[in-house]
Design a protein that fits this description.
The structure is a homodimer of 429-residue chains. Chain A has 429 residues and is of the alpha/beta class. The first copy, chain A, has 14 helices and 16 strands. In chain A, strand 3, helix 6 and strand 4 form a beta-alpha-beta unit.
Chain lengths: 429, 429
């Protein structure tokens, strides 16, 4: 079989497995998930051995230390995977929820009920824990997964997937649809466009990784893709903001974990309070070693300020406003009120997470309505856009799309729905 | 400007208009819709004149009578467009509905609220009424539309779109975002792939038409497409069916309006009742001039039956089971119970609408769970898959997709959602 035939067969089997999986009840799915968690922990030494093989090849290939760290498994990370599976087992089943119910004048009863999406391709980079996390979330929501991790983690991922399937088979025997969790059996790059052309079998692709990976996937896919390219998040400090609250939110949104997608990249400050607010927040940002890229007005207001260490400040260029730094770098701009803030965000932002700090409810409502983003906050940090913080339990990713799930994607966001009509012989007249 | 630049500018303006439109309140939108309806009626003679131009060109080009009928406007059809806009005005506003609300342990209040999708490209064929229907539904749900009708209806569509915009401007003045309703200003074919590559401005494409059109759109699009390719719908008559009810549903699903997507194309009959059921339903189908394409068992059971007129009966070939006839032709197959029926439907069906007739609740539940389709019915005709019949009011189309809307798409299905977080200064720790 050539690659096209091989992947078509893999996807065809995934579709059949998805149909069998959709018929398992909640207790059966949870039994499998708990068995999977146990199996991973029991096989820790085999997992570390497979991972050592990947690590040695990666070191020999000269991978960067940050990449090596993502690739590495240790006993704690294996336990974290197992814990994740147990947490998913403990979450409510998202399938079979009644979203709507109506009885028509002719007596036909219509129910809108959640169902699994079907077959989901997950494309990700070096972290092997994604294999267990994604497979667990998809399994609980009744979806078959086709997993495509980074080539550098191939041996580790292959063993994780095999252990998950073995555990499911031990738990349910023949009733476990073994092909509901499959790893793409090749590291060839051409596998991705082939898989994402199989519209008869694949229902959705969720890519997780850097903007380059996600753009490449979205460009070549013929199946729906749910994604966010990047997180260029904003905090707008309004004239009616409590300055202490504003500083606390700005520092948290930028500094608490700068490498993640819901960290702030651009601070917008209302002109009427900029002369008071910018020097004080600038001092604190300097203390935290945040470099600033600022517009002319902000530079004027900040350049006289003495800080310890001295503030690193340079003029922002147009491209900066579009940039996700994932680092201790912050754009700063002075704007004429909330409308200019909204316009800046809608032009340069990534529709991920944006916040306003103000005590004025009217201004806040304008911002919450006017900013076109997956999550908008009033008097809270952008850092809350996260499945755990939203109370969804684990998340498989964050979407900035408008069709399908938007914002953090937990179990409910991995379902579709069907309409069920129950009649007593109704016909259309 | 070349075509690429021209369409990019059009889409950029649509996006800006969508943002302005999203800020209009329900009363303002309804005022516009009612003004649009009045304007179309007032301008009936101008519309018929523009349509005459299109009709003459179409006749000269030798279009088929069925196409000419779709293209033709008359006073009744203009009134129907106006009535459609008034009905949309009367429907509840789908924007701003709270889908979910939760307060987190840290006091952060999260609301999941419906918002417009943004910019929607509608691609359709000859019927000019789609221009008003689609623009009205999108406008009420806060979405800007870019309309691309069939080239043969260009003059008619252009006038309809212009009248809608004039009416909105007369109603709201400067507050009406004129570029929220735009017609693609060229009949060039290349306009479609260009428009559907503009992922920064276009949020969704809804193609309406034959399978060829929809496949061409889905193939070239880089923006999400919500669609159904075809309707290969099934009725399964179970051993526990009431035969009178089964016959009534079968005849309705096939004959009441055979040219539409929710009409039945394949009848599946349980082997244990086939010898009783097929001859009686065969006689009625013959009376209604339905031709049958049947498997060997059904042929055996039907070929001895005397009907008036004689039954047109021939063996089905593999391709027939996949075919949407849109005509008085029906596939018939004898199956071994509900499981074989489910497998047939999942293999050959189009995931549109499928029904079981049975008095046995356990069997019905197996069917409703096992069939993977947008709408599944128990003891009711497949013909009910329709926005009006579902109580949605008008519909913009039917989706068999799993990501985004599934089944009939009314106003609610033209919305996305955003998460709104309201805090008192919460930061992430």
């Amino acid at each position: 079989m050539n690659l096209q035939e091989q992947l078509t067969e893999l996807a065809r089997r995934a579709k059949a497995a998805a149909r069998a999986l959709a018929l398992l009840n909640t207790a059966e799915k949870n039994q499998c998930l708990l068995a999977m968690a146990d199996r991973l922990e029991q096989q820790t030494s085999a997992l570390l051995e497979a991972n050592r093989e990947d690590m040695q090849a990666a070191e020999a290939a000269g991978l960067r230390p940050a990449m090596l760290d993502r690739l590495r498994l240790d006993a704690g990370r294996v336990q974290a995977m197992a814990r994740g599976l147990r947490e998913v087992a403990a979450l409510p089943d998202p399938v079979g929820r009644i979203l709507d119910e109506r009885v028509r004048p002719n007596g036909l009863r219509l129910r809108k009920v959640t169902v699994p999406i079907g077959v989901i391709v997950i494309i990700y980079e070096a972290r092997p824990n994604v294999t267990a996390d994604a497979a667990g979330l998809c399994f609980k929501s009744g979806n078959a997964t086709i997993l495509r991790g980074g080539r550098e983690a191939f041996h580790t991922n292959r063993l994780i997937a095999a252990l998950l399937v073995q555990a499911g088979q031990a738990a349910l025997g023949q009733r476990f649809p073994a092909e509901a969790i499959q790893l793409v059996p090749t590291a060839e790059r051409e596998a991705i466009p082939i898989l994402l052309s199989l519209t008869s079998y694949v229902d959705l692709c969720i890519p997780r990784g850097g903007e380059g990976l996600i753009r490449a996937v979205a460009e070549c896919s013929r199946v729906p893709v749910i994604k966010h390219y990047k997180g260029v998040c904003h905090v707008y400090v309004d004239r009616d903001a409590d300055p202490d609250m504003a500083e606390r939110i700005v520092i948290n949104a930028k500094c608490q974990r700068p490498a993640v997608c819901n960290a702030m990249e651009t601070l917008l400050v209302d002109r009427s309070i900029a002369a008071q607010f910018l020097p004080r927040v600038g001092a604190e940002l300097a203390r935290r070693k945040v470099q600033l890229r600022a517009d002319a007005e902000a530079i004027r207001l900040l350049s006289g300020v003495r800080t310890e260490p001295p503030l690193e400040l340079r003029p922002a260029i147009e491209q900066d406003w579009y940039t996700e730094y994932n680092d201790l770098i912050l754009n700063v701009r002075v704007v004429n009120g909330v409308q200019e803030a909204i316009e800046h965000i809608n032009q340069y932002g990534s529709a991920h997470s944006d916040a306003i700090v103000t005590a004025n409810e009217t201004t806040a409502q304008r911002f919450l309505n006017g900013v076109d983003a997956a999550a908008v906050y009033w008097n809270a940090s952008t850092r809350f856009t996260d499945g755990g913080e939203f109370g969804m339990g684990a998340e498989i990713g964050i979407s900035t799309d408008k069709v399908g799930a938007r914002g953090p994607m937990g179990l409910e966001e991995l379902t579709s729905y069907k309409w069920i009509g129950i009649g007593q012989g109704q016909i259309r007249t």
